[in-house]
Amino acid sequence: MKCTCSSIGAAALLVGSVFAQTFRRLGACESLGCLFPPSQADFLAGQYFDIRLEVHQPMNGSEFIGLPLDENFTLTVSKKGEEVQNATEFFEVEEPKLEKWNFTWYEDLFARDAKTPSFVNVAAKAYRRVALYEPGEYTATLNYNNGSKTEATWFVRPLAEERKAKNIILFIGDGMTTAMITAARLIAHKQINGKYQSLMAMDKFPILGHQMTHSIDSFITDSANSAVWRHR
Protein backbone atom coordinates (compact mmCIF):
# COMPACT_ATOMS: atom_id res chain seq x y z
CA MET A 1 0.00 0.00 0.00
CA LYS A 2 1.35 3.39 -0.99
CA CYS A 3 1.09 6.26 1.46
CA THR A 4 2.36 9.80 1.02
CA CYS A 5 3.78 12.02 3.73
CA SER A 6 1.22 14.70 2.94
CA SER A 7 -1.65 12.33 3.64
CA ILE A 8 -0.04 11.25 6.91
CA GLY A 9 0.41 14.90 7.89
CA ALA A 10 -3.20 15.69 7.04
CA ALA A 11 -4.39 12.74 9.12
CA ALA A 12 -2.24 13.87 12.05
CA LEU A 13 -3.66 17.38 11.85
CA LEU A 14 -7.18 15.98 11.75
CA VAL A 15 -6.59 13.79 14.77
CA GLY A 16 -4.96 16.72 16.58
CA SER A 17 -7.93 18.97 15.89
CA VAL A 18 -10.32 16.31 17.16
CA PHE A 19 -8.36 15.94 20.40
CA ALA A 20 -8.12 19.72 20.77
CA GLN A 21 -11.89 20.11 20.52
CA THR A 22 -12.70 17.39 23.06
CA PHE A 23 -12.80 19.87 25.95
CA ARG A 24 -13.33 23.61 26.18
CA ARG A 25 -12.44 25.92 29.03
CA LEU A 26 -15.86 27.55 28.79
CA GLY A 27 -18.47 27.43 26.04
CA ALA A 28 -18.71 30.57 23.85
CA CYS A 29 -15.49 31.92 25.39
CA GLU A 30 -12.62 31.44 22.95
CA SER A 31 -10.37 34.07 24.57
CA LEU A 32 -9.50 34.82 28.20
CA GLY A 33 -12.30 37.40 28.38
CA CYS A 34 -15.81 35.95 28.53
CA LEU A 35 -18.92 37.99 27.79
CA PHE A 36 -22.44 36.61 28.18
CA PRO A 37 -24.89 36.79 26.47
CA PRO A 38 -22.48 35.96 23.63
CA SER A 39 -22.41 37.54 20.20
CA GLN A 40 -25.48 37.01 17.97
CA ALA A 41 -27.89 36.95 20.91
CA ASP A 42 -31.39 38.23 20.13
CA PHE A 43 -33.72 40.10 22.47
CA LEU A 44 -37.15 41.64 22.37
CA ALA A 45 -37.27 45.34 23.15
CA GLY A 46 -37.65 45.79 26.90
CA GLN A 47 -36.78 42.18 27.73
CA TYR A 48 -34.88 41.76 31.01
CA PHE A 49 -31.65 39.78 31.01
CA ASP A 50 -28.39 39.40 32.94
CA ILE A 51 -24.86 40.18 31.73
CA ARG A 52 -21.98 38.09 33.02
CA LEU A 53 -18.31 38.99 32.61
CA GLU A 54 -15.42 36.67 33.37
CA VAL A 55 -11.68 37.22 33.00
CA HIS A 56 -9.63 34.03 33.16
CA GLN A 57 -6.01 33.78 34.28
CA PRO A 58 -4.52 30.37 33.39
CA MET A 59 -1.71 29.43 35.76
CA ASN A 60 -0.26 26.80 33.43
CA GLY A 61 -0.94 25.09 30.12
CA SER A 62 -0.94 26.43 26.57
CA GLU A 63 -3.00 29.52 27.49
CA PHE A 64 -0.63 30.75 30.22
CA ILE A 65 0.43 34.34 29.42
CA GLY A 66 2.17 35.37 32.65
CA LEU A 67 -0.14 38.27 33.53
CA PRO A 68 -1.74 38.71 36.96
CA LEU A 69 -5.49 38.31 37.31
CA ASP A 70 -7.14 41.47 35.97
CA GLU A 71 -9.68 42.71 38.51
CA ASN A 72 -10.10 46.11 36.81
CA PHE A 73 -11.83 44.99 33.62
CA THR A 74 -14.62 47.18 32.22
CA LEU A 75 -17.70 46.81 30.03
CA THR A 76 -18.90 49.34 27.47
CA VAL A 77 -22.13 49.25 25.46
CA SER A 78 -23.33 51.24 22.47
CA LYS A 79 -26.14 51.20 19.96
CA LYS A 80 -24.93 51.20 16.35
CA GLY A 81 -24.00 54.72 15.30
CA GLU A 82 -24.26 56.15 18.81
CA GLU A 83 -21.85 57.04 21.63
CA VAL A 84 -20.00 54.30 23.50
CA GLN A 85 -20.79 54.36 27.23
CA ASN A 86 -19.69 52.53 30.33
CA ALA A 87 -22.23 49.83 31.18
CA THR A 88 -23.19 51.45 34.48
CA GLU A 89 -24.06 54.70 32.68
CA PHE A 90 -25.74 52.98 29.75
CA PHE A 91 -28.05 50.85 31.89
CA GLU A 92 -28.19 53.34 34.81
CA VAL A 93 -27.14 50.72 37.36
CA GLU A 94 -24.48 50.47 40.04
CA GLU A 95 -21.17 48.72 39.44
CA PRO A 96 -21.67 45.08 40.47
CA LYS A 97 -19.58 43.39 43.12
CA LEU A 98 -16.39 41.63 42.02
CA GLU A 99 -16.46 37.85 42.33
CA LYS A 100 -13.42 35.57 42.39
CA TRP A 101 -12.93 31.83 42.20
CA ASN A 102 -10.82 29.22 40.43
CA PHE A 103 -11.30 25.96 38.57
CA THR A 104 -9.36 23.24 36.77
CA TRP A 105 -9.90 21.62 33.39
CA TYR A 106 -8.11 19.34 30.93
CA GLU A 107 -7.03 20.89 27.64
CA ASP A 108 -7.20 17.57 25.80
CA LEU A 109 -7.35 13.82 26.25
CA PHE A 110 -3.57 13.59 26.62
CA ALA A 111 -3.69 15.95 29.61
CA ARG A 112 -6.54 13.97 31.13
CA ASP A 113 -4.71 10.66 30.75
CA ALA A 114 -1.56 12.20 32.24
CA LYS A 115 -3.63 13.77 35.05
CA THR A 116 -2.15 17.21 34.36
CA PRO A 117 -5.03 19.69 34.64
CA SER A 118 -4.80 23.39 33.84
CA PHE A 119 -5.50 25.74 36.76
CA VAL A 120 -7.47 28.93 36.08
CA ASN A 121 -8.17 31.91 38.35
CA VAL A 122 -11.32 33.92 37.58
CA ALA A 123 -12.48 37.48 38.24
CA ALA A 124 -16.12 38.10 37.37
CA LYS A 125 -19.06 40.50 37.60
CA ALA A 126 -22.77 40.13 36.89
CA TYR A 127 -25.14 42.92 35.85
CA ARG A 128 -28.63 41.80 36.88
CA ARG A 129 -31.99 42.70 35.33
CA VAL A 130 -30.92 45.06 32.58
CA ALA A 131 -32.82 45.77 29.36
CA LEU A 132 -32.45 47.28 25.89
CA TYR A 133 -35.56 49.26 25.01
CA GLU A 134 -34.84 50.45 21.48
CA PRO A 135 -34.77 48.00 18.54
CA GLY A 136 -31.50 47.84 16.65
CA GLU A 137 -27.96 46.50 16.76
CA TYR A 138 -25.81 46.91 19.86
CA THR A 139 -22.14 46.26 20.60
CA ALA A 140 -20.93 45.22 24.05
CA THR A 141 -17.17 45.25 24.68
CA LEU A 142 -15.28 43.67 27.56
CA ASN A 143 -11.91 45.41 28.04
CA TYR A 144 -9.29 43.51 30.03
CA ASN A 145 -5.58 42.65 30.32
CA ASN A 146 -4.32 46.09 29.24
CA GLY A 147 -5.80 46.24 25.75
CA SER A 148 -7.44 42.88 25.11
CA LYS A 149 -11.09 42.98 24.05
CA THR A 150 -14.02 40.63 23.68
CA GLU A 151 -16.91 42.01 21.65
CA ALA A 152 -20.49 40.81 21.34
CA THR A 153 -23.07 42.01 18.83
CA TRP A 154 -26.63 41.90 20.14
CA PHE A 155 -29.81 42.36 18.13
CA VAL A 156 -32.96 43.83 19.65
CA ARG A 157 -36.18 42.99 17.80
CA PRO A 158 -39.20 45.30 17.88
CA LEU A 159 -42.45 44.18 19.44
CA ALA A 160 -45.24 43.47 16.97
CA GLU A 161 -47.43 46.53 16.51
CA GLU A 162 -50.51 44.46 15.69
CA ARG A 163 -51.68 41.63 17.92
CA LYS A 164 -52.67 38.77 15.62
CA ALA A 165 -52.79 35.83 18.03
CA LYS A 166 -55.85 35.52 20.26
CA ASN A 167 -55.16 32.26 22.07
CA ILE A 168 -51.71 30.69 22.49
CA ILE A 169 -50.86 27.26 23.86
CA LEU A 170 -47.25 27.05 25.08
CA PHE A 171 -46.10 23.44 24.84
CA ILE A 172 -42.69 22.63 26.31
CA GLY A 173 -41.57 19.03 25.87
CA ASP A 174 -38.38 17.32 26.97
CA GLY A 175 -37.10 14.62 24.64
CA MET A 176 -39.45 15.57 21.82
CA THR A 177 -37.27 15.04 18.77
CA THR A 178 -38.80 13.33 15.74
CA ALA A 179 -36.94 10.10 16.51
CA MET A 180 -38.22 10.03 20.10
CA ILE A 181 -41.80 10.77 19.05
CA THR A 182 -41.59 7.97 16.47
CA ALA A 183 -40.27 5.56 19.10
CA ALA A 184 -43.09 6.47 21.50
CA ARG A 185 -45.68 5.91 18.78
CA LEU A 186 -44.14 2.58 17.87
CA ILE A 187 -44.25 1.35 21.47
CA ALA A 188 -47.70 2.70 22.38
CA HIS A 189 -49.75 2.02 19.24
CA LYS A 190 -50.47 -1.10 17.22
CA GLN A 191 -49.65 -1.24 13.53
CA ILE A 192 -50.59 -3.69 10.79
CA ASN A 193 -48.63 -3.84 7.56
CA GLY A 194 -46.88 -0.62 8.46
CA LYS A 195 -50.12 1.26 9.18
CA TYR A 196 -50.83 2.53 12.69
CA GLN A 197 -54.28 1.54 13.92
CA SER A 198 -54.41 4.48 16.34
CA LEU A 199 -52.51 7.71 16.83
CA MET A 200 -51.08 9.73 19.69
CA ALA A 201 -52.94 12.85 20.73
CA MET A 202 -50.19 15.07 19.36
CA ASP A 203 -50.52 13.37 15.97
CA LYS A 204 -54.02 14.85 15.80
CA PHE A 205 -52.91 18.45 16.33
CA PRO A 206 -54.19 20.67 13.49
CA ILE A 207 -50.76 22.31 13.31
CA LEU A 208 -47.45 20.86 14.49
CA GLY A 209 -44.08 22.57 14.09
CA HIS A 210 -40.43 21.97 14.86
CA GLN A 211 -38.24 24.19 17.01
CA MET A 212 -34.56 24.64 16.15
CA THR A 213 -32.64 24.56 19.42
CA HIS A 214 -29.32 26.27 20.14
CA SER A 215 -26.64 25.69 22.73
CA ILE A 216 -23.19 27.04 23.52
CA ASP A 217 -21.93 23.83 25.12
CA SER A 218 -23.42 20.90 23.18
CA PHE A 219 -24.73 19.87 19.77
CA ILE A 220 -27.68 17.94 21.20
CA THR A 221 -29.21 20.28 23.77
CA ASP A 222 -30.63 19.35 27.13
CA SER A 223 -34.03 20.51 28.32
CA ALA A 224 -32.72 23.72 29.92
CA ASN A 225 -31.16 25.09 26.73
CA SER A 226 -34.14 24.06 24.60
CA ALA A 227 -36.71 25.48 26.98
CA VAL A 228 -34.89 28.81 27.20
CA TRP A 229 -34.89 29.23 23.45
CA ARG A 230 -38.53 28.24 23.10
CA HIS A 231 -39.48 30.72 25.78
CA ARG A 232 -37.50 33.49 24.11
UniProtKB/TrEMBL annotation:
Presence of the UniProt keyword Zinc in the record: yes
UniProt: Mg(2+) binding residues: 174
Pfam family membership, one: Alk_phosphatase
InterPro entries: Alkaline_phosphatase (IPR001952), Alkaline_phosphatase_core_sf (IPR017850)
GO MF: alkaline phosphatase activity; metal ion binding
Keyword Zinc appears in the UniProt entry: yes
Cofactor: record remark: Binds 1 Mg(2+) ion. Binds 2 Zn(2+) ions.
Entry annotation: catalytic residues: 223
Cofactor(s) annotated in UniProt: Mg(2+); Zn(2+)
Family annotation (PANTHER family): ALKALINE PHOSPHATASE
Name used for this protein in its record: PhoA, Alkaline phosphatase
Species: Pyrenophora tritici-repentis
Taxonomic placement: Eukaryota, Fungi, Dikarya, Ascomycota, Pezizomycotina
